[in-house]
Amino acid sequence: MVANNTEISQLLDSVGLIIVAIDSEQKVSYINKKGCEILGYKKESILGKNWFDNFLPEKLREDIKMVFSKLMSAEIELAGYFDNVVLTKDGQEKIIGWHNTLLKNDAGKIIGTLSLGEDITERRRTDEKREVLIQELQDRVSELKSMKMKIPICSWNKENMQEAIKKHYLHISKEGKCSDCLHVLKSAPRIKK
User: Fold this and answer.
1) Residue ranges per structural domain of the chain
2) What is the spatial distance between Cα 163 and Cα 154, in angstroms, rounded to a whole number?
3) Which candidate, 30, 62, 64, 25, places its Cα nearest to that of 46?
4) What pLDDT score does 169 carry?
């Protein structure tokens, strides 16, 4: 049994990914329901429009149009996967992870692209936040390591470090040395030469 166009369209609309076909003239020849939802437009407002001029941020348009033109003339190969930004109706930029294939006619001539895209905006932002937090943590660890060099040896492993530091400086002021620090140094393992 062969599915009819309505059944195929319903199936493609049920997919949780953007499905978009762009013809060699850079116009949208097909977009599914999820694509319309992500972009914030009705299907009629997308079909037949230039994909690059209408749904990509201006700063990216010319470069991506040039790549697309080279794809259509078979000067370069299509990347099977890449991330790209799309522009929604309300001006938001969303990062989409695209899986792509070329569309060819019966004679083998390239006539467009078919792309399946996943909105990875939140995932990417979460990854960026995680990277910032990791860097902050690494900075704090480095800071703590450098601080440890300034903290008296006798207070390193004490639960109440403030009290241990006060005691250390009390010994220094009274005796000119800290007997607790000397004890730690004397009991430390010796490095043999």
Assistant:
1) 5-119, 121-149, 151-193
2) 11
3) 30
4) 78
Integer CA distances (angstroms), 104 to 1, 72, 112, 152, in order: 25, 10, 7, 74
Contact 39, 89 (CB under 8 A): yes
* CA atoms within a 13 Å half-sphere pointing along the CA-CB vector of 82: 11
Cα–Cα distance measured from residue 123 to residue 64, given in angstroms and rounded to the nearest whole number: 23
Under DSSP, the state recorded for 106 is T
What's the pTM value of the predicted model, to 2 decimals? 0.64
Query: What pLDDT does 93 receive?
Result: 96
Per-residue pLDDT, 190: 65
> According to CATH, what is the number of the domain 5-119?
3.30.450.20
- Residues with pLDDT less than 70, the chain: 1-15, 144-150, 153, 156-157, 188, 190-193
For 94, the token pair is 């969303």
| Run of H or E including 190 | none
Report the largest interatomic distance among the alpha carbons of the chain, rounded to a whole angstrom: 97
